[in-house]
Amino acid sequence: MRNITKKQLWAAILTAAAVFSLTGCDIGSNETSYTEGTMGVVSTVQEYTSNTDYLYVKNEDGTIAISGYSGKDSVLNVPDNIDGQKVTAIDDHAFEANWTIEEITLPDGITYIGEGAFMDCGSLKSVNVPGTVVTIRRAAFASCSALDNVTVPASVAQIMEEAFSGCGSLKNLTIESTSVIYESWGLDKEVMPDLVITCPDGSQISKWAGENGFATSAL
To answer: What CATH number is given to the structural domain containing 15?
Structure first.
């Protein structure tokens, strides 16, 4: 099973920030239900192993969310199907603090990247976000100190707070959406002095970047 204590500690730290959450929690329940914005993901306390190196939890729609990885590969191509079940989400804290992974490719069909999913993956340099993702939750890539280039496709409707906090090597962040709004993602000019935000002219992020001193490049 995953380290619940670490999850609870991180959640407590971030609670002090302004939270624009898509989740609805039932205290005392064994389930956490997300709104339609995250495609109905439900993570239960039961975690399943597979004949691969991945752990997963089941979603209410019959698909699964990857909840952990026990392998040692530095370059990962996450499967789109495990045990005959479609992978549609990366669960909260699924790859947290994995210092072995350097590159990861997520499959089409992923709609949700959970809270702290790749947090503190200090060797992670490259990650793709497929054009099916709708939600990137808080601190998803926080403290990925080697990450230097990320492209967020136009399908993403919300990137939550602290998503890129502590990503000191980040040089280029591409936001393809014209409407996604900056919500305290953790972009810091002092920590990321060379960061260029590539985005559509006139987009919400273009306006924010200009107002906050970040260099921009038009898509």
So the answer is: 3.80.10.10
